[in-house]
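Before relying on records like the one below, remember that each one covers exactly one chain. Contacts with other chains, cofactors or solvent are not represented anywhere in the record.
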Amino acid sequence: MSIDNEVELLRRYPIFRKIDLAMLKLLCFSSERLSYEKDQVIFNAGDPGDSAYVLIEGHAEVTVPTPLGPLKVATLGPRDILGEIAVFGDVPRTATVTTLSRVVALRIAKDHLIGVVRQNPDAALELIGILAARLARTTAQLRGAAPSVPN
């Protein structure tokens, strides 16, 4: 895929929509396009947060480790971004992401993604919205998964 095609692809993502063309081209040029087969782990909870991934094709499952085993907290698909919590929180990965189908993703290095967000307040606001929605969804799922306590 050409840089121009990847730029047009990224423009479909809310976080990248308002970024200027030159910055998007640089981001695409510095990113890596990866393919994964079904049931392949993209990253594990605890891994270093060295990059984020933009899903282009396919679906992936997000699980968090619990004492009772992995707990599914989300299914992500095209136009979703993953791994951003570890990048911006400067913490190890908080979840494991496993493909549910063949997946094509754009891997964006931590430094490049942070640079884009620093220079683009609209991207930062969009990212905050994504993180807030993800936190609310995960909190609701964890609340539902907690064992009930008898009165």
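The domain at 3-142 is CATH 2.60.120.10 (Jelly Rolls).
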